[in-house]
């Protein structure tokens, strides 16, 4: 069963994070403002402390700037993590979408028919039949392209690999095994030895 990544409410809810950020930022701003007013007042009435006060004001301004940058960076990090989770769930939802049923059905049928074939000669003959069927061939290309796209996202860290692996591991390994000859033939025909390379590499990685 897929375990959805759990994220604290402050990270998952934009409004909640915004309130926290605003409260913290306003608190820092108000504190800095009051401190600055106090320092300015002393600056005018106690001239002997001016050098020390100048240093203190500079320090306060720097601290306020650093604090603002930290909270801004934290907001970016949370936003990126949310996008990664949303992208992961989207890939799972797409596979479960009814529009993919016919593709999954064709792939399952091909896998079932290929499994009992005894050698590469028989498998190649079967693949020739698939290539002769333009519609069936295009369905396989579509699903391999989709899995390659997902594998690229895993490679570049754009999705939550742990969740996708839990859902897709069997699918990726099964489809790679079933369509190995199809992939090799496609690479040769397109003169592209790296065609579906992210998918095949992910299969080897997840297989162990």
Short description, anyone?
With 208 residues, the chain is mostly helical.
What does this 3D model show about the protein?
This protein is 83% helix and 0% strand. The chain has 208 residues and is mainly alpha-helical. The protein has 2 domains: 9-85; 97-207, no CATH class. The protein is elongated, with a radius of gyration of 29 Å. It starts with 8 loop residues before the first helix and ends with a helix. 12% of the residues are buried. The model is unreliable at 1-25 (pLDDT under 50).
Main features:
single chain; 208 residues; mainly alpha; 83% helix; elongated; disordered N terminus
SSE layout and pairings?
Blueprint (H helix, E strand, L loop, with lengths): L8 H4 L1 H32 L4 H47 L4 H14 L5 H13 L1 H22 L5 H18 L1 H11 L6 H11 L1
Helix pairs in contact: 2-3, 3-7, 4-6, 6-9, 7-8, 7-9
| Secondary-structure-derived class | mainly alpha
Largest sheet composition: none
Number of continuous helical runs? 9
**What share of the residues does DSSP label as strand, in percent?**
under 5%
Overall tally of domains: 2
Separation of the first and last Cα atoms: 19 Å
> How are helices and strands ordered from N to C?
HHHHHHHHH
Low-confidence stretches: 1-25
The proportion of residues forming helix, as a percent range, comes to over 70%
Number of strands: 0
Nearest-angstrom radius of gyration? Answer: 29 Å
Shape: elongated
How would you state the average pLDDT, rounded?
Answer: 75
């Amino acid at each position: 069963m897929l375990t959805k990544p759990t994220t604290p409410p402050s990270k998952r809810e934009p409004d909640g994070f915004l309130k926290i950020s605003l409260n913290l930022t306003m608190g820092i701003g108000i504190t800095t403002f009051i401190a600055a007013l106090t320092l300015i007042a002393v600056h005018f009435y106690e001239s002997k402390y001016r050098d020390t006060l100048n240093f203190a004001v500079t320090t306060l301004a720097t601290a306020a700037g650093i604090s603002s940058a930290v909270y801004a960076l934290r907001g970016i990090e949370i936003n990126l993590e949310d996008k990664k989770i949303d992208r992961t769930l989207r890939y799972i939802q797409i596979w479960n979408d009814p529009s993919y049923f016919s593709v999954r059905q064709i792939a399952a049928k091909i896998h079932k028919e290929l499994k009992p074939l005894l050698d590469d000669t028989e498998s190649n003959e079967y693949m020739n039949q698939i290539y002769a069927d333009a519609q069936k061939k295009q369905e396989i290309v579509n699903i391999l392209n989709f899995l390659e796209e997902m594998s690229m996202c895993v490679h570049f860290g754009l999705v939550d690999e742990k969740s996708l692996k839990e859902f897709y591991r069997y699918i990726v390994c099964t489809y790679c095994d079933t369509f190995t000859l199809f992939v090799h033939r496609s690479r040769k025909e397109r003169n592209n030895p790296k065609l579906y390379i992210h998918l095949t590499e992910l299969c080897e990685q997840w297989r162990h």
